[in-house]
Amino acid sequence: MHALLVEDDDRMAQALGTALTQRGHTVRRVGRALDALLHLREAEFVLLDLGLPDLDGLELLRRLRTVCDAPLIVVTARCEERDIVQGLRAGADDYVVKPFRMAELMARVDTVRRRTDRRTGLRDADAGHGDHRHRPVRAGDVEVDPAGRTVTVAGAEVRLTRREFDVLAFLAARPDEVHSREEIMDRIWGDAFLGASRSLDVHVAGIRAKTGRSGLVRTVRGYGYRLGRPATGDGGPRDGAWGPADDGAHDTADDGAHGGADRAR
Question: What predicted TM-score, i.e. pTM, was given to this entire model?
Answer without folding.
Answer: 0.57
